[in-house]
Amino acid sequence: MERLFLLCSGLLVTTVTSQHNVCSRPQLSGNIEMSGIQRFSSPGEELALACKEGYTPLSGPRKIVCTINGVWTSTKLKCIPKQCPHPELITNGELFYEDTVYQSAINYTCHEGYMMTGESSAVCQANGTWSSPAPECIPIPCGLAPVPLYGMVIYDKVIRGNTVNYGLKATYICNPPYALFGNPVAECTASGTWTKTPECQVVTCPPPESIERGYMSNNEKREFFYRERVKYGCESPYVLEGNVEVVCQENGKWSEKPSCKAPCSVNLQRARILHNGKKIWIENFQPNRVLHLEIVSVYCMNEARKCGYAVPTQCIDGTLNIPKCFEEPSGVEYTLKPNSLPSEIDQC
């Protein structure tokens, strides 16, 4: 209460007046904003509330009132940030983000060998959309692979135009008599360039060497170029072991030459042998010759079961080892009792 003194016609008059409390500008939190700019409000005045940009009202009254006590009424209004749609994965790249609400950010990167078209980042805006669409990661291009002199390039797939993409590989081939020096496979790299191009260089080999008991298809005493070939053969009855032909290699040397292997004789006086599926008495085995790597069998006796069995042995370059179980019969047994020989009795 407040007293007011007035002097009227010599008389002192006292009056009493009352003053109501006013509300000062409220302090609001939680991303709520209010209308109006006045510093003080009288009891009964209302103040409209709203959410700040980028936030959405969830619940509670949208206004508060100044009471006679100079205190604003309370509000349960909540403002939550707007939500942007979840971003989709990008091909040949990665994206990184912690949330998708207002003012959240997405950062994009591309894998090695790919470059980005579009923005590398986006921010969730007040209207619930991203500030920019997702970028694309496209392969880094290279020009066509360099072609070495006297050579050619074969790509992993069909090429159209004058550019290829990161990761494509190309194989190099040199035209004879040139040989390839360097890595025969090149690749379009992440820097947009090709790995090192090999070179095609002339390679020659000395005249090929002859082989014992054999002959060659070409006896010229000259240098032979890379990938030239020479064939070998053997005189009868020798057998060629190894490749029939040799080739001049990129290191200037011939591939491994073959050799001629000698036949074998079956050094038995009295026996019946098995050769090429036929049983033959040794005296009828003419000529007495088994070629290199051919197999001949002799017959041994199983004393316990009194039956015979064939044991094979192989000719190796002129040597034919007779199995230890073989016992050559005496002349009498061979001539007078041939049916008792291991080759003639029941077989085990």
Description:
The structure is a single chain. This protein is mainly beta. The protein is 2% helix and 38% strand. The chain contains 1 helix and 32 strands. Strands 30-29-31-32 form a 4-stranded antiparallel sheet, with no helix packed on it. The protein has a 3-stranded antiparallel sheet with strand order 4-6-8, with no helix packed on it. The longest helix is centred in the last third of the chain and has 6 residues, at 331-336. The chain is elongated and about 155 Å long. The termini are far apart.
Q: CATH class of the largest domain, anyone?
A: Mainly Beta
CATH second-level architecture of the largest domain: Ribbon
Number of strands: 32
Largest sheet: 4 strands, antiparallel
Strand content: 35-45%
Question: Which segments are poorly predicted (pLDDT under 50) over 5 or more consecutive residues?
Answer: 1-18
Helical residue percent?
under 10%
Radius of gyration: 53 Å
Number of helices: 1
Output the CATH topology of the largest domain.
Answer: Complement Module, domain 1
Q: Multimeric state of these chains?
A: single chain
For the record, the count of structural domains works out to 5
Quick one: overall form?
A: elongated
- The secondary structure category is mainly beta
Mean pLDDT: 90
CATH homologous superfamily grouping of the largest domain:
Complement Module, domain 1
Distance between the termini: 140 Å
In order across it, which strands form the biggest sheet? 30-29-31-32
Keywords: Disulfide bond, Glycoprotein, Heparin-binding, Repeat, Secreted, Signal, Sushi
Subcellular location: Secreted
InterPro entries: Compl-Cell_Adhes-Reg, Sushi/SCR/CCP_sf, Sushi_2, Sushi_SCR_CCP_dom
Protein name: Beta-2-glycoprotein 1
